[in-house]
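Pilot study result, target chain (496 residues):
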Amino acid sequence: MAQSPYSAQQPSARSSPSHSLQGTSPPATVETIVSHLVASKRSLGSITLVHRATTILTEARASIESTTALLAKTTYLRRSVASQLKILRGVQFELESAAQAIQHDFQAIIKELDETGARLLQCIDSLKETTIEEAFRSTTGTQSTISKDTLHDFVDDNGVENIKQAMRAAIDNVQDNQHEINQSIQTLEEDLQSINEVLVNRAEESAAESELQQPTIPMSLSILEHHAKEMAQGLESLVKHFDLCVTAIKHTEGGGEAVVQTMNANAEDLSEAVGMGMDELQAPAQPMNEEERLEMLQVLENDAAEVDEVVMELQDRHAEMEAQLDRISQWRERQGNAYADVATAFRLMEKISGRLSGYVAETARRASRWNEEKAKIEDGIGGMEELCSYYANFLHAYDGLIIEVDRRRATKKQMERVIAQAHSQLAQIYEQDRQLRVKFRDDLGEFLPGDIWPGVNALPPRFEIHRVDEDGFDASVPDLPQKTVEEAARRFKTGR
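Predicted structure:
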């Protein structure tokens, strides 16, 4: 009994051809057998698909092996870059912290500068608002004093302007310095961001590109191996079917001539990958009885109906293997791109690492410059505070001057009262002494010789009280309004 050429084929999407007789079909004619042989011969062109399946399996294995090695290298480089990037981010954080500390320090000292400047302006405004009392200006006739109407006229603003100019220059230097620090840090940030952009997975990857992930690769290889095996078995079944057709021709009268004519007529349609089978047809046939022949023809008829189905299955499996290879190729391409990205990131990392010392040194230089400018600003603040103190003392002294003038005027009046009282008492004593001398002379003078004391008849001495100094300033002590004196005393006591 002849065996079905498809008996070794495993079940697939299509049902396997029969292994035994299916019913009792009428005996096949020579034309039918020849047509089956031609169809079988044409189906053997599927050998190219099987060869391609072997090539696909080889390429897939090579791609998976090389890509797996590339993936390991990519993973190692990515971890290395990520580790170094973490270190660089730490350095960047320290540089940013240093820049922020400078910025905060700058803002604090600018706030102090503004507050001191406001106090200085307030002191200057107080000087401008404090008018010199008319009593002071009327006590002297010099032109320079007359032209000075307020306390501000007595001070020189050049010191204030010099400090302001120095502060503006220092602040401009600090702001330029801060801008350069920020620019340096921004450059580092852009460098690190460029690495991040290289390392980040492409957001625009389509679903087809991300369909095949590494965990599915073993499964894909298993699928390819299964398809290749099934295709080999299918081709083997087609070959057995072809051999069965040849055997049937040999045992059919007139089959050889019909085959030669049919083959010659269809030579262009038949695959060049397989021989014409003439050697098999010319070989002697094995002995076979009629029962075996009929059973062989029945199997041949049943199997011939499934030849196209087997060819279609080979084509489907080939298409699936091509699709799997395409997905593996895409995976390999993505991994190649990923490796190229990581390698690019690694090269960028080397360049950035080479420039890192420059970033740190630049920040250190900027910090040193900040300390220098900070010292200048602090000196300016100190100078402004000294001016504030000087102007405040000036205002305080002017109030004290008002109080002092009022005190001196009161003292002068008190001295004048004492002098007037002394003059009155001296006049009284003089008159009293004169009268007593006259009375003494009238009562006893005639009894005393004139040469006993020459001054016995002299008049009493006269005394006068007058200033010893001659500058005359105290003689013109200004007479200030009492309200002015009271307000000055209040300010002097409370320190304005």
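One observation from the pilot: The two ends are 133 Å apart (CA to CA). A full batch analysis is planned for the follow-on phase.
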